[in-house]
Amino acid sequence: MKTVSQFNFSGHRAVIRVDFNVPLDKQTFAVTDDNRLRAALPTINKIINEGGAVVLMSHLGRPKTGPEDKYSLRHVVQPLSVLLAKPVQFVNDCIGDVAVNAAKNLKAGEILLVENLRFHPEEEKGDELFAQELAKLGDVYVNDAFGTAHRAHASNVGISSNIAVSVAGFLMSKEIEFIGGAVDSPARPFVAILGGAKVSDKIGVIENLLDKADKVIIGGGMMFTFL
């Protein structure tokens, strides 16, 4: 697995798949928990400190009928700018001429956030043409969204097939290293705690853990399936 540590980003434009699926206040749309924004900072800072430019892409929520303001990533721009101590540019789409031109005009050290990937149904379908459009945003792909890496979507599987270089970000690398160690040679007793709403996403994980963990505890919405 190649990681950002093994690549020098000077002169490159990196497209980073981040997980900015943060909770927003229902009235003001202010970010109420910025942990996921903070988790992306090491990877972003590494790239811009080396003289690279950054294009950030993410989903937010589960929009069903196209663009909706309550799911717009524009609500993330201000808190992210504060955390990075530098301005973050924003465009209201993730593909098309506006997004591509904004990405191409980035100078070294500059950051662009594109609009919610899931405003396009092609994202979750893993559409090849959509993935090719995303790949036009940069020349290096960085996957730092561990929470969505299990899904065969255009922004993780598709784009990596259409760009010259693909690497894992610091967050992705850390999660893989930690989970790999925990599963392959766990300290005993080994208890696995799983949560989430959709059990369909987790069945494979649960089956894999049954002969490794001493106990598996199911929480969140998934518990009702078992009850």
Write the layout of secondary structure elements.
Elements: E1 13-17, H1 35-49, E2 53-57, H2 74-84, E3 89-91, H3 97-104, E4 111-114, H4 122-125, H5 128-135, E5 140-143, H6 154-160, E6 165-168, H7 170-184, E7 191-194, H8 203-209, E8 215-218, H9 223-226
Parallel strand pairs: 1-2, 1-5, 2-4, 3-4, 5-6, 7-8
Helix pairs in contact: 1-2, 5-6
Kindly describe this structure.
This protein is α/β, with parallel strands linked by helices and 227 residues long. Helix content is 35%, strand content 15%. The chain is built from 9 helices and 8 strands. It has helices spanning 35-49, 74-84, 97-104, 122-125, 128-135, 154-160, 170-184, 203-209, 223-226; strands at residues 13-17, 53-57, 89-91, 111-114, 140-143, 165-168, 191-194, 215-218. A 6-stranded parallel β-sheet has the order 3-4-2-1-5-6, sandwiched between helices. Helix 1 packs across helix 2 and helix 5 (128-135) packs across helix 6. The protein starts with 12 loop residues before the first strand and ends with a helix. The mean pLDDT is 93.
Largest sheet: 6 strands, parallel
Unreliable sequence segments: none
Average pLDDT, to the nearest integer?
Answer: 93
Strand content: 5-15%
Structural class: alpha/beta
- The gyration radius over C-alpha positions equals 18 Å
* Global morphology: globular
- DSSP strand count: 8
With strands numbered from the N-terminus, the spatial order across the biggest sheet is 3-4-2-1-5-6
Helix/strand order: EHEHEHEHHEHEHEHEH
Oligomer: single chain
Fraction in helix = 25-40%
Q: DSSP helix count?
A: 9
> How far do the termini sit from each other?
39 Å
